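Write out the 3D structure for:
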Amino acid sequence: MTKTSPFAPASLPTLPSVGGVALAAAEAGIRYQGRKDLLLVRFAEGAEVGGALTTSRTPSPAVNWCRSLLNSGRHARALVVNSGNANAFTGQRGVDAVHLTAQIAAETEGCAPEDVFLASTGVIGEPLEVSAFADTLRGLHEAVRPDAWEDAARAIMTTDTFPKLASRTTQIDGVEVTINGIAKGSGMIAPNMATMLAFLFTDAPLPGGLLQTLCTDTVAQSFNRITVDSDTSTSDTVLLFATGAARDRGVPEITDPHDSRLEEFRLALDELTLDLAHQVVQDGEGLTKFVTVRVDGAHTDEDAQAIAFSIANSPLVKTALAGEDPNWGRIIMAVGKAGVEIDPDELAIWFGEIPVAAGGEVHPDYEEAEAAAYMKRDELLIRVYAGLGGAGAATVWTTDLTHGYIDINADYRS
């Protein structure tokens, strides 16, 4: 049995209701026994949606379905998510499974199939037998309620060791609105999302085009800044739903993403998605360390991000962290292979506040014993100055790489 992450919260937050959102989850036996693995979310009529989907060239049929709906500007009446089976690389059977799932949900919710958004996560390459859980899905129609957030978060888990939830209350033009979010992810976590699902819900009256911009922007600073193992999944999905229920409280409809009245909402959304992204990393398969990699002094933010991910994805760096070995030469290696310009003679590295390297060599004040003691911490910071004096900077979050990661993934299908 997989050990619970050392970073799992002592208690889970109780999320408030979001007007126009009701949820239900059930045990459908898709892959797991004795745990919820099927989620239905119902939206009030007229709910808008924006999203960010995997960049994988082998996307699942559910991803293609959502991409088509987003491109056509459809409203959302329902969201159906299953865990245990990704329904990816399953040919026409996978496409048929998507259409049948949408059809069943549409019949029970009284909407068109094209108003049903879908996501699947789990094993790749195995057909999803919708007939095996069709009755369970139909039964969820009568079970939805506005407070089933923990059940929803548990239903989308695969190798996760704890459910991931977050909520923020903020204002638009002085009127209170709510944002709730649930996410899953533990392995196959890399930039441009990963085997990672996140669903965000607000009662703000925001149109689909604006939601698309907001979702793209917030994903860029959160879910696209995390990595556990550098693998990008076939099923990555982040969807941001807005029911508009707060319109009745006087929240104005805003269409311009640069409208100053959106500033507090943007900040709250970014804070929430970063919270969820950190939870995903903190549940990384087999982890013992939560690691922040911060780079500055590069020509551009993109260059800084390339350096940061080169460090964060390096197996040699990650195994050194697992062994609590301050092997800073591996940081030098990872910086050098990032493929962007640096100045080796001005490059500088720190472990937390401990100076490690500068001026093209080890820092004169570096003490190996001090660095080794620092490496025993649960949370680590690796700082790099690229040496160019530029404004380019980036921060990413990652884990160490342990035998636990191998054990989990070697046995994933058994």
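The domain at 21-280 is CATH 3.60.70.12 (L-amino peptidase D-ALA esterase/amidase).
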